[in-house]
Amino acid sequence: MTAAAAPGAATRTLLEVRGLSVTFGAHGRQRPARAVDGVDLAVAAGEIVALVGESGCGKTTLARTLLGLERPTQGEVRYDGQPLRYSQRALKAYRHRVQLILQDPTGALNPRQTVYESVAEGLRIHRVHGDERALVADALARAGIRPPERFFLSYPHELSGGQRQRVVIAGALVLEPRVIIADEPVSSLDASIRGEILALLLRLRDDLGLTVLVVTHDLGLAWNIADRIAVMYLGRVVEVGSTEDVLSNAKHPYTRALLSVVPEIEELEQVVLAGEPPDPTRVPAGCRFHPRCPALLGGEAAAAGIEERCVSTPLAVLPATGGHNAACHLHS
Amino acid sequence: MTTVAAPLLEMRDLWVSYRTSRGQIPAVRGVDLIVRAGECVGVAGESGCGKSTLASTVLRLQPGNAEVTGSVLVEGQDVLTMRWGALRTLRWAGASMIFQGALHSLNPVRRVGVQIAEPIRLHDGVDEQTAHTRVAELLEQVGLPPQRADAYPHQLSGGQKQRVMIAMALACRPRLVIADEPTTALDVMVQAQVLDLLTNLVRRLDLGLLLISHDLSVLGTTCDRVVVMYAGQVVESGPAKAVFDDPRHPYSSALASAFPRIGDPAARLAPRGLPGDTPDLAELPSGCVFHPRCPLRADRCEQEVPVLSAVLPDRPVACVRADEDPDLVPRARAAAVPT
Predict the structure, then answer these.
(1) What is the ipTM of this complex?
(2) Cβ contact (<8 Å) for A263 and B259?
(3) pTM above 0.90, yes or no
């Protein structure tokens, strides 16, 4: 399994979005918010992809759309070569195979349900046949809750934060999914637990061939576990490629700025972008990053003679597959 | 002034325990700590290590069931025995606090300018106009346009709200500021902005800053000194960058590698954590309290109680095995790197 999952290996695309846009409030009186605004993204079977960006960049909307929780305004979600269908029955079958893990395990678990009930709930909803006790025990053990039987009757408040997140992961694993979409899976956990949960995700990929899409603002997490990275800014993927390429040899000024503020990286001069993440109801013309772009403000773009294009010419959507790409006039 | 002024904050052998139905729960166990003017001191540790309890004692904000012994001196005065009036002056004007989850501590139905002005009016007894001018000054200091005083909290982004909280903390010109996880809920870019702001303020206003976080990488790059806490005790302290780059206690080492260095081949596809959970404070392990989770534990760790002693100049570490080999931890870290 490990070999098939190795980065760069030619594997089959399992989950994919094509030309995806999700717009909120298009019919109201307010300006529509273009949360996702033209994204192509492909995740191969057995691959771990990190979707990175600041709050408000559209990464969570993209993840929700992948799960069928939001409908695309344009474009489509494809799973296993087929476009996702939105009938009740089709969505239920889809969500059997594609599971979600959320940031806050305390909020994700029902405080009045035992660990056993929480994990078994999915089996009952999807009417999975077989020995429920054995399946629950197996999922808990895989998620690192050992011995599982000892925790069957525990309530969430009796567990530590790391154990709770493991129970949430067991609840996803019990259905034997092919894909896990994890939205900030470790950001509410303590530092020493964080590595353990990330190691668990990595092990599940290696042992079960799971495909994982991790949504995060944490570049260190991506370095720890992801094969590929897509960096999102204001509804678009602005840089995509293998983790090594994107993080060690970033092309896009936004990715470079993000990297420079990670406290561990001292060689880079800090580029603290002024202002807040921009507003998806007012997407700037030209390159959508230009109002905050250090390359434009610092004269690098002028030196290359592309200043005019930065403010007026929009960039093409980056292809879902292929090597290391950045949506920047400096690199086109 | 020729003599050295008293430190802004000095904790001496501080113990805090909570009376609960399960008995006496020790949260802070014998901590010594000093913060001087113009200095940023970091406290690193995870949930349940006592860092927030520690912070609460500075303004005597600890809950009613807490029992405190030792001393907490703010500019030489003991907070724990202080009269109510003196304590009232101390809060906000002598020392102020930026709380964890500050994004929810603003009143949603009042303009932020009014909220910043409140402590100024109460403490300085100034008229509306003076308070108004001071609010504008404060907003400028934290990098917000003065017109933002008229905004309601929901009109501000997370980073802007955190700036407002910092402006409030500075309202009565305190000498000492305590920030408990001030950037936890913020994005990396906004976190960098807020940390920049805090360190600039320390320099410009000659403040003392006690910065509390579970992220040793943040403290390592922001603070002058750092103390690492585990289960209520200081396990290591020293110059912040040195502790982060070259930790000498196995626990600090685990904290330092929890947030990987991007580009470090040893961390690529190899997340590192610590097995197990933080100990139950009601039933602390014997000997060194860290031994059940320690990757370097030996038999003697189950009996011997470690005390802080310097393994290197200015680098006190509480590890039983430090006397065997002062380079035990760096050697183990080097061995973890695949060749």
Answers:
(1) 0.82
(2) yes
(3) no
